[in-house]
């Protein structure tokens, strides 16, 4: 649906929503005060009061138009209120992942020149105190929660969020005219935020997204996918990531959708039945885990349970293909016996799953479609604000990331000679355009202004013709965009064949035995893999077999366990071309995590880190080749 208020900047979005809901008792955000409590609403009257108090405080502290303000916080109401206040005074939001170590926080604060730094928990405050003296532009740190370590509050530059609100409220009247003047000065081409790419290599770069970049993307997304003020979203992807920022925040509030904040990423399965969302925006990892839990449960059940499950999936497939009549009745039975239980886990009201950030394995996409819980895959980059393409409800194509959204143009450039193979704009539909694979390019109002303080990196990303080079390989398939992999992830084997590891890894992720997998084999005669087992599944098997082990290290060394993976590798490799088949593997005892550095905060694998960390295992695989 169209957005519920007119706006050309994020500043106007707040102002017009605030006016629209003045006195309407409209709840916008919901939070849980503690794990045992129910969700509590935050109404627009409070949002408006808090945003103006924060804005007054920022002005009192000398924040000028274009100044940067940092936020280091999990998804919570304070994050949104601070962001709206920053936009109100013409500032620039610099938000950081809570998983970043102090050194990386320090780099981003130094590079951006942030003046004020908002932090959430005692853990994040500790980071801020550690790096404060090294950040010359930083004047003050404002903490949401009272830390357990009392000495952190003894620093003169640390203030509590509630105290800041009170002080801001006291200065509001004297700064009201200044705030009004600032709101009128904000232009669509002004930078609204710096989003530092988490980066699988090198130092993070600050993508400058303007108000126009984000607003154009919000409006295009709401034209492409329908949601309205009857919907509610459970927010858990990091708000400092452009996907959640645009789709899970600005697009939601601009359409009147209520936003429920998950307590954490780890409590999503607990919070879904509590919040009963109608919309879920996620990365593929959530769907992979849900799928693997279901498959695990079925495989551990009786033969009868397996037969019912397989029949239900097949019935769902027929129904999703448009078959009706007897199939309609069978689908109702399949829902009652199998799929309704899955829907209950999500709160029972989800009508839209939206997936982005990485490719969704086709088998998982198909399963959810059979269950009547279609996943709308989308695609984009931080640098494109972020959405470039997305599937539409009722027009999904498994294995594709959808059609190009309004206002955006996507091109496919040959990897061999650099020629443009094809291009489609959001206004070109209906179209059956298909193309060979090549690098995905993008033009449109959503393309970033550039990288902060990094003109060289900007020129590498955006060419003289205005095309942004994504570094992703893809193709058009009857008007739908399909992603192959990242160019830099491409493996060239000893025979000179180009192999993209992403689709191979997606295939193996559907195994109940495999939690995470990274394909390796650069300049080698065959492909191999580093595998993180699903330790819950493997551990249960080992105990049932009476095998002795005391930790994961001992578990993965058991011959019986290795035999399982040998069989699994052989089975899945049958579906691959000869040069893509996995010929060998090594199991590792620890999950790849953000904290240990193997994956980014958006759960993408850092292949270089894996290669370095497990180089000895990779070397061992190929030593006799």
TrEMBL record:
Any Pfam family matching the protein: AMP-binding
SUPFAM superfamilies, sorted: Acetyl-CoA synthetase-like (SSF56801)
Annotated ranges, domain AMP-dependent synthetase/ligase: 37-452
InterPro entries named in the record: AMP-binding_CS, AMP-dep_synth/lig_dom, ANL_N_sf
Gene3D superfamilies in the cross-refs: N-terminal domain of ligase-like
One annotated Gene Ontology cellular component of this protein: membrane
Protein name (database record): AMP-dependent synthetase/ligase
Organism: Gracilimonas sediminicola
GO MF annotation list: ATP binding; long-chain fatty acid-CoA ligase activity
Keywords tagged on the record: ATP-binding, Nucleotide-binding
Origin: domain of life: Bacteria
């Amino acid at each position: 649906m169209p957005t519920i208020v007119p706006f050309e900047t994020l500043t106007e979005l707040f102002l017009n929503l605030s006016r629209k809901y003045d006195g309407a008792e409209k709840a916008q955000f919901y939070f849980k005060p503690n794990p045992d409590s129910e969700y509590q609403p935050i109404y627009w009257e409070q949002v408006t009061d808090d945003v103006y108090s924060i804005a007054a405080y920022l002005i009192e502290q000398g924040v000028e138009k274009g100044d940067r303000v940092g936020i280091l916080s999990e998804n919570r109401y304070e994050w949104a209120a601070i962001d709206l206040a920053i936009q109100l005074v013409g500032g620039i939001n610099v938000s950081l992942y809570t998983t970043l170590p102090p050194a990386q926080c320090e780099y981003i604060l130094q590079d951006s020149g942030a003046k004020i730094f908002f932090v959430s928990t005692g853990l994040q405050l500790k980071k801020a105190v550690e790096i404060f003296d090294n950040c010359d532009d930083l004047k003050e740190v404002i903490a949401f929660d009272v830390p357990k370590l009392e000495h952190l509050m003894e620093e003169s530059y640390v203030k509590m969020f509630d105290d800041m609100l009170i002080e801001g409220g006291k200065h509001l009247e004297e700064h009201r005219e200044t705030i009004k003047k600032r709101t009128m000065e904000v232009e669509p081409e002004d930078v609204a935020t710096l989003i530092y790419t988490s980066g699988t290599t090198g130092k993070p770069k600050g993508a400058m997204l303007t108000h126009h970049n984000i607003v154009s993307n919000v409006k295009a997304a709401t034209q492409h996918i329908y949601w309205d003020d009857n919907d509610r979203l459970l927010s858990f992807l990091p708000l400092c990531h452009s996907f959640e920022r645009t789709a899970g925040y600005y697009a939601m509030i601009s359409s009147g959708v209520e936003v429920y904040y998950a307590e954490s990423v780890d409590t999503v399965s607990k919070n879904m039945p509590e919040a009963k969302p109608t919309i879920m925006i996620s990365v593929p990892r959530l769907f992979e885990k849900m799928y693997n839990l279901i498959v695990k449960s079925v495989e551990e059940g009786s033969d009868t349970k397996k037969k019912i499950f397989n029949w239900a999936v097949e019935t769902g497939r027929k129904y999703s293909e448009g078959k009706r009549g007897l199939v309609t009745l069978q689908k109702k039975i399949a829902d009652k016996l199998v799929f309704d239980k899955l829907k209950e886990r999500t709160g029972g009201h989800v009508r839209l799953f939206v997936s982005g950030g990485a490719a969704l394995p086709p088998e998982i996409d198909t399963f959810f479609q059979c269950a009547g819980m279609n996943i709308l895959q989308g695609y984009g980059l931080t640098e494109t604000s972020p959405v470039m393409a997305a599937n539409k409800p009722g027009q999904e194509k498994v294995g594709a990331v959808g059609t190009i959204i309004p206002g955006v143009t996507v091109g496919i450039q040959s990897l061999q000679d650099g020629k443009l193979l094809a291009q489609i704009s959001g206004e070109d539909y209906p179209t059956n355009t298909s193309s060979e694979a090549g690098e995905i390019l993008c033009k449109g109002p959503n393309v970033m202004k550039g990288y902060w303080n990094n003109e060289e990196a900007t020129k590498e990303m955006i060419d003289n013709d205005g095309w942004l080079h994504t570094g992703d390989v893809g193709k058009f398939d009857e008007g739908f965009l399909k992603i192959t992999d990242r160019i830099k992830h491409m493996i060239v084997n000893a025979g000179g064949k180009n192999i993209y590891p992403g689709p191979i890894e997606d295939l193996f992720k559907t195994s109940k035995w495999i939690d995470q997998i990274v394909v390796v084999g650069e300049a080698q005669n065959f492909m191999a893999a580093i595998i993180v087992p699903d330790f819950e599944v493997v551990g249960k098997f080992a105990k049932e077999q009476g095998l002795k082990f005391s930790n994961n290290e001992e578990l993965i060394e058991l011959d019986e366990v290795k035999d399982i993976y040998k069989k699994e590798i052989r089975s899945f490799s049958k579906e691959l071309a000869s040069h893509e088949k996995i010929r060998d593997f090594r199991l590792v005892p620890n999950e790849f995590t953000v904290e240990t550095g193997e994956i980014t905060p958006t759960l993408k694998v850092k292949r270089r880190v894996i290669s370095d960390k497990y180089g000895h295992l990779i070397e061992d695989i190929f030593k006799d080749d």
